[in-house]
Specification:
heterodimer, A: mainly alpha, Arc Repressor Mutant, subunit A, 2 domains, 7 helices, elongated, B: Rossmann fold, 6-stranded mixed beta sheet, 4-stranded antiparallel beta sheet, about 30% strand
Chain lengths: ~180, ~230
């Protein structure tokens, strides 16, 4: 959904060819969001059909023409409108871990608790890496781009923290249920 | 540098014995920034207090720089506490009637040094952490972040072997908390050994090593670096 607007946003800064669009995207948000060329080209195709993006051909020696993409006036208008609106869709509650929890053997809560422990350790390691990146960023030159990257890293840290807190709650509730089962047997 | 060998701490609750720590062994290297996580009641503050000489183990041994903290007299323990460790707390624990610079100099004043000698040292540390302009302010005239910086300066004035931090961001908003963590990180980069107790995983992530305590025992030791899974 917002691949569309991310691409429009990139093209609003500068006309680019497909490869450069991918590089720019990776540079800006690659840490959190990976896109492949297929997704980029199919989105560009759709945007062209909607007249939000257009392209020019640039001849190359011994190679097929290069397509240089640019944003149209209508594309710019839709981007501006989208930028001014708050996001109405909340984060999807669809986590791979949740599916695992759903299908693990409920007669073996110890295995579930072990998995929770491993998952928490992994999140902590990831948080440590994000923090390292943030520290490196803070030492580099300060500019708008660095600030946006830092804020994205902060978002990653807050989300991981929420995941860890949720896992801790799972742990506690599963343990409480275990004790209760023992008592009622 | 810091060594805990089979350390247990037991309290009496009426007729019942409650273990705050159960047979914990842990060694902390010079220059490490260790984060200790765990729910409330998991024993993390007890562990910090044992390393800081605020408390003694019921069983087991604790060493700082090969010197034992167990089985020594109260006055010996007090000296180690004053000279080897610096403490910072969630609620800063500054003396309200003293100015920032007097609070910073307090550990040396208590040790018997005259204020004329302590003052330039306290000034230098306040300057280093960017609080020179606040030297003559009392705690009530400072923001939470500034109070914690003063507390950090006070902890550093004895040039301690280890800085012990008990929930240092627990009473600060996210942004101010981050500034305190950045300060701790820069002290760590200058070689300061730090042990920080926190229940905040964002704070713990600043460490070079993260351990988790559960029901008084070590349940997880995440060394940072290396592969993720």
């Amino acid at each position: 959904m917002s691949i569309k607007y991310a691409l429009l946003g990139i093209l609003a800064e500068k006309d680019l060819h497909g490869y450069e669009i991918k590089t720019s995207f990776d540079d800006k948000v690659g840490e959190f969001w990976s896109l492949n060329y297929g997704q980029i080209y199919s989105t560009l195709e759709r945007l062209e059909k909607e007249d939000l993006v257009t392209h020019d051909r640039q001849a190359q020696d011994k190679r097929p023409d290069k397509k240089i993409f640019s944003i149209t006036a209508e594309g710019r208008k839709q981007l501006e409108e989208w930028l001014a609106e708050p996001v109405s869709k909340l984060r999807a509650l669809r986590d791979e871990f949740f599916i695992k929890l759903m299908f693990m053997d409920s007669n073996n809560p110890t295995a579930i608790l072990e998995l929770i422990e491993k998952q928490k350790a992994l999140y902590l390691k990831q948080m440590n890496r994000l923090t390292q990146r943030k520290l490196a960023l803070k030492k580099s030159a300060y500019n708008r781009h660095a600030l946006i990257s830092e804020l994205l890293i902060d978002a990653g840290l807050f989300h991981s923290e929420a995941d860890i807190n949720w896992l801790t709650l799972c742990e506690s509730k599963i343990k409480a249920a275990m004790t209760k089962n023992k008592l009622s047997r | 540098m810091i060594e805990l060998k089979n350390v247990s701490k037991q309290y009496r609750q009426g007729a019942r014995a409650v273990y705050a720590l159960k047979d914990v062994s842990l060694s902390i290297q010079k220059g490490e920034f260790l984060s200790i996580m765990g729910a409330s009641g998991s024993g993390k503050s007890t562990l910090l207090n044992l390393v800081g000489g605020l408390d003694q183990p019921s069983a087991g041994e604790v060493f700082i720089n090969a010197k034992p903290l167990h089985g020594i007299s109260d006055s010996e323990l007090t000296l180690i506490r004053r000279r080897q460790v610096g403490f910072i707390f969630q609620f800063f624990n500054l003396l309200p009637l003293l100015t920032a610079i007097e609070n910073v100099g307090l550990p040396l004043l208590v040790d018997g040094l005259p204020f004329t000698r302590v003052k330039p040292m306290a000034e230098a540390i306040l300057h280093k952490i960017g609080l020179a302009a606040r030297a003559e302010h009392r705690p009530e005239q400072l923001s939470g972040g500034e109070m914690q910086r003063v507390a950090i300066a006070r902890a550093l004035i004895t040039n301690p072997a280890v800085l012990l931090a008990d929930e240092p961001t627990g009473n600060l908003d996210s942004h101010t908390g981050e500034e305190i963590l950045l300060l701790l990180k820069s002290l760590h980069e200058q070689g300061q050994t730090i042990i920080m107790v926190t229940h905040d995983s964002k704070a713990a992530a600043y460490g070079t090593r993260i351990i988790t305590l559960k029901d008084g025992a070590l349940s997880q030791d995440v060394a940072i670096g290396g592969p993720l899974a």
